[in-house]
Every structure is written in C-alpha cells, then in structure tokens.
Specification:
alpha/beta, 35% helix, 9 helices, single chain, six-stranded mixed sheet, Rossmann fold
C-alpha cells in the first residue's frame, strides 16, 4: 500500500508488519526483505516461532482451498454464475442515486428518438476500463437510434448534438485509477463543451460513472445521477433510471462539499 510506503523505511516495513501480527506480506522483495527479517530475528525483534506460526497458517489455508491444484479455485457452475449475475444487477439497481434534477426524471423520449451518448473519460487499460458500450447497447435494444462520441472536441459535440433529440453525457472518474484527488482531467482544453451543453440543447442528461463528487466541479449542471462505477450492471441500471423503468433508490454515502454558484452581476456593489 502506498500509505505504508510513505510511513516506514524499506528495511522496517516488513519487520514492523510482522511484529504487528500479519501472516502474509504483499508486494515483498525477497532479495532484500528476507535479509531484514533474518536480521530482526537475530536482534530479537521477531521470534522464529512467530514466523513459523504465520507460515503454517498460510500453508494450511492454501491446502484448505486446494490452491496447489486449482490456484483460482473451482470454476463456478452455470447456476452459480446466474445467481451471481442476478445479485450484481440487483445491487447496481439499488445503488443509483439522484444528486440533482429529480424533476427531470424520467427522460421523455419518443419511440425511435435519435440519441447522442458522450463518454468523458481518461480510460486506463491497466484497470480494464473500456468505453460505456453497454449503455449504448441498452438504448439501442429499446429502439433508439444512438450516435456516440468519446472525449469529443467542442465543435464536433455541438454539431452532432443539434442533430439528436437527446444527449446523455456520461462522465467516468474512477477514484482507484488515480493517486490523489479524483478530478475531471482530459488532455485538451478543446473538450470543455460538454460541461455547458445544456445551455444549447434542451435535453441533456448527466451521469457520473464513478466519483460521487462530480457536482463539486460542476455545480452548475441541471441534473446528475451517480452509478458509482462503470460496470456492465451499473450501465444497465443507469439506463433504466433515466428511462423511468425503475426509481433511483441509492443514498449518497459521502458528504458533498458545499459550492454556491452566484449569478453574474454587471455592476457588482463594491465590498
């Protein structure tokens, strides 16, 4: 963990962790860490008995789980997979939270309406992040004509948006994909237009697939629902909420920073 590495020197991390009672030290560097452990035993800071006890517990757990023959465990049955999928979808359905614009739900779209979906994201392949393809597929399954843009330039977005009946702006800011504060960061200032698209188009709907703090950076947008992640089940759940097929049941698990947007004044009164 990054937090641990900032609080202890390399020679002390594993020794202090073992002394605290852990059995398994993740991310070890055997060429160095084993020497630190041996030195701590010689100095009396760790006991051989505790080391062997930890090793026995780890080996016993591996044997109990049959990890030697099946490191990833036994393959789930078709029945188990169906049960897991149902549970995952049920949890995602219950998680969707409305942060603003409840009065704009559901999004009223005529049958066969043309819809533009916009993904705003800095996708990280290391975490397996992909574009929100399922969100689009769910809309198409309901008979809508879907156009899609990923991190579009403002001019491109504005032009295509005017040709569509509604626009879904889906912002992916996954906290685990960045070290530090989760922020909306893209590579070009030219992509800013999605933030104000609602001022030019009457039917723009915003979803945060990840961070619940999006309103802190976008306190002016008229509506926002949160799906807390970009999983397939979350994409399906968001579509169902927007289209009024189910009500949002989620409760925000954090306290949002208070941000007040003041109207522009041409002749402000001096302070």
């Amino acid at each position: 963990m990054a937090g641990l590495t900032t609080r202890a020197a390399p020679a002390e991390r594993i020794v202090a962790s073992l002394a605290a009672g852990i059995d398994l030290y993740l991310g070890a560097d055997p060429d160095h860490d084993l020497g630190y452990v041996r030195q701590a035993v010689r100095e009396g800071r760790l006991s051989e008995e505790s080391i062997y006890a930890s090793a026995r517990r780890v080996l016993a757990m591996k044997a109990q789980l049959n990890l030697v023959a099946a490191p990833l465990g036994s393959a789930p049955t078709a029945e188990q997979q169906a049960t897991f999928a149902h549970a995952a979808q049920a949890m995602a359905d219950k998680s969707i939270t409305v942060l603003r614009g409840a009065e704009q739900l559901p999004a009223r779209l005529a049958p066969g309406a043309s819809v533009l979906t916009v993904t705003v994201a800095k996708l990280n392949p290391f975490f397996g992040q992909k574009d929100l393809e399922v969100f689009d597929a769910e809309l198409r399954q309901r008979g809508f004509a879907v156009e899609h843009l990923l991190n579009p330039k403002t001019a491109e977005l504005q032009e295509l948006a005017q040709q569509c009946d509604a626009v879904f702006v889906n912002v992916c800011v996954t906290p685990m994909s960045t070290m530090g504060t989760a922020r909306i960061v893209l590579d070009s200032f030219g992509t800013w237009g999605w933030r104000a698209l609602f001022t030019e188009h009457p039917h723009v709907f915003y979803t945060s697939f990840g961070s619940p703090y999006l309103l802190y950076e976008l306190p002016h947008i008229p509506n926002l629902i949160v799906a807390y992640g970009d999983a397939v089940v979350s994409q399906r759940a968001a579509v169902k909420v927007w289209l009024g097929e189910m009500e949002a049941q989620g409760v925000l698990p954090v306290t949002l920073p208070r941000v007040r947007v003041r109207p522009f004044q041409e002749n402000p009164t001096p302070a």
